[in-house]
Amino acid sequence: MDAKIGAIDTCKPANNDVGSLPTTNTVTIHTPTVPFNSPDSTLGRHLARRLVQVGVTDVFGVPGDFNLTLLDHLIAEPGLKFIGCCNELNAGYAADGYARARGVGACVVTFTVGGLSVLNAIAGAYSENLPLICIVGGPNSNDYGTNRILHHTIGLPDFSQELRCFQTVTCYQAVVNNLEDAHELIDTAISTALKESKPVYISIGCNLPGIPHPTFSREPVPFCLSPRLSNQMGLEAAVEAAAEFLNKAVKPVVVGGPKLRVAKASEGFVELADASGYAVAVMPSAKGMVPEHHPHFIGTYWGAVSTAFCAEIVESADAYLFAGPIFNDYSSVGYSLLLKKEKAIIVQPDRVTIANGPAFGCVLMKDFLAALAKRLKHNPTAYENYRRIYVPEGHPLKCEPKEALRVNVLFEHIQRMLSGDTAVIAETGDSWFNCQKLKLPEGCGYEFQMQYGSIGWSVGATLGYAQAAREKRVIAFIGDGSFQVTAQDISTMLRCGQRTIIFLINNGGYTIEVEIHDGPYNVIKNWNYTGLVDAIHNGEGKCWTTKVHCEEELVEAIETATEAKKDCLCFIEVIVHKDDTSKELLEWGSRVSAANSRPPNPQ
C-alpha cells in the first residue's frame, strides 16, 4: 500500500516524542477498493491495518478463547507481528516499553481474566502519558442483554465489570458488539490515544473480526490529525510576563520535567537553554529527555538527593522555570524541596503559571518555550556559579583482589559501557538512584517508571523497548525482588532474538522498602537466578548467563557480553551485600518514611 499517515511516514517519531502527530493537513493516498464481501473487508483486517498505519509493527498479548479469531486477522497482516507473552501483565508492560521507543504500543488480551490482569500495566502507562491501545476479545455479540452468565466473568450476567475498571485508566473506551459502528469506534479510539497520549480500551465481540461489512470495503484512509494550537493572544501575554520575570532575575535556571515528552517540547526546551545561557537541570523522571552533553547541563535536580552541586544552584536561584514538572512525594523527596512558588514559572503542556501571579491557559509548552527563547537576555550567571563550586566526582575505593563487589564499583564500569547505540532501563528500587548518576552519551536512551513505580515493570518494558528499538542494545538493571514478579518473559526475549544485557542485582530483598520501613517481609527467598534463566533458555535461542562476586569477574563478564556474546541475550547476576545501597537511597528513604509517617491532622 502506498500511503502515508499525514506526516507520519516512519515508525519512530523524531526526538523520541511519544505519539508524534502530523502537522500537515495534506495527505497523498492510494487506497484501492476491497470488493465488498471479499474475505478482506473485515473488522479484523481494518484494525490490523490501522495499527500498522500508526507505527505499531509488534503487538504483545496472550491468546484466549475470546480473542483467537481476532488474532488470526492480526497475524495475517504482513506488517504486523504478534508476540505472545507469558502473562497479560508483562504484555502490558511490553506495550508500555514499546510506546516509549516507538511512539505508540498495543496489546491484545482476552475478556476479564486477561483484561483485569493487564489493568495494572495500563494504569502505569496512563500515569506516564503513553499512547497504548489495549484490545480485548469480548463476548459474542449475541450474548449482550440476554441475562446469560459467561465464563471468564465473576458469575453475573452483567458484562460491564471490565469496562468499568478500564474507565479510570484509559482516556477512551470502545465496546464493539455490532458491525454498524465498529469502524467509527475503532478509529475514534486509536486517534484519541494519539491525540491525548494516553491508553485506550477496545473490546471486540469474539464473533465479529472475520465478518465482511460495507464500512470496511475500502482500504482505511490514514489519519491526519489536526495539530493542537495555542491561543495566540494568550501565548504572547505569557511570553511577555515570563520574559519580564526572568530578565530581571540575577541567576535564573531552567529545569526539565517528565511532561516534556507528552508536550513534545524537548527541542523547544533545548532551544530555550541555548538562547538563555541558564544552568540546565532535569527532574529525575525527565532523565533522557534533555541532552546531557549540553554545555550548560548541571545534572539531576532531586532535592536532597540531587546530583552533586545541582540542588545548591537550583534552590539558590532567584528565578526558576520548570518545564513539565510533576511534584509528587517521590520526586519531592517527601515534600522536602526548598523551592518557593514566588520564584517559579511552571510550564505545563498547555498552561503557564508565573509565580503567585497570572496563569495563562491554552498555551502549548513547545510554542511557549520557542517564543520565550527569542525574548530572553543571555544570562549564564547560575552556570558560572556552578562551575566555581563544582568539584569533579571521586572514584570508589579500589577493590582488593577478589574483594566482594560493591555497587558503586559496578556502576563505574557500567558508565564505560554506554554509547549512542545503547539504552538504559532502570527498575524501581536502588537502580533509580544509581542510574541517575550515569552520564548519558548523545543518543543513549533512558527509561524508568517513576510516577507509578510498579516493581517488575522493567522486565516487560525491556522486552517491548528492545523490540521497538532494534538498533540499540538495551542494558537493564533489575533488583532481585522486582525480577521475581515478572521473570517469565525472559522467555519471550529469547524467542524474539533480543540481545539485551540484564544486570540482576541480587541483594536478598526489597532494598528500597528496607530504607523506607524495614521488617521481615522485606526479605525474599533467594533464587538461583542464572540457573532459572538457563532453564528458561533450554537450548533454544542465544543466551549467556554468569554470576559475578568481585570486580575481576565483573570485568570479564562485561567483556564477554560486549564482544564474544554481543549477539546474545546476556544475563549477569551481580551478588552484592544486602546493605550496599547508594547514599541517595538512604537519604531519600528516610525522608519518604517521614512523609508517610505524618500523624493525622487534628480534627
Brief overview:
34% of the residues lie in helices and 16% in strands. The chain has 603 residues and is α/β, with parallel strands linked by helices.
Describe the model.
By secondary structure, the chain is of the alpha/beta class. It folds into three domains: 41-214, Rossmann fold (3-Layer(aba) Sandwich), CATH 3.40.50; 230-387, Rossmann fold (3-Layer(aba) Sandwich); 405-587, Rossmann fold (3-Layer(aba) Sandwich), CATH 3.40.50.970. It is built from 20 helices and 19 strands. It has helices spanning 43-53, 68-76, 88-102, 113-127, 161-166, 182-196, 232-247, 266-276, 310-316, 365-373, 381-389, 407-417, 430-436, 457-468, 480-486, 490-495, 511-516, 529-537, 551-562, 583-596; strands at 58-61, 81-84, 105-110, 132-138, 173-176, 200-205, 253-256, 279-282, 297-300, 320-323, 344-348, 351-354, 359-361, 422-426, 445-448, 473-479, 501-506, 543-548, 569-575. The strands form three sheets. Strands 9-8-7-10-11-12-13 form a seven-stranded mixed beta sheet, sandwiched between helices. It has a six-stranded parallel beta sheet with strand order 2-1-3-4-6-5, with helices on both faces. It has a six-stranded parallel beta sheet with strand order 15-14-16-17-19-18, sandwiched between helices. A hairpin with a 2-residue loop joins strand 11 (344-348) and strand 12. Helix 3 crosses helix 14 (457-468). The longest helix has 16 residues, at 232-247. The termini are far apart. The model is unreliable at 1-32 (pLDDT under 50).
Descriptive keywords:
about 600 residues; alpha/beta; Rossmann fold; 3 domains; seven-stranded mixed beta sheet; six-stranded parallel beta sheet; 20 helices; 19 strands; disordered N terminus
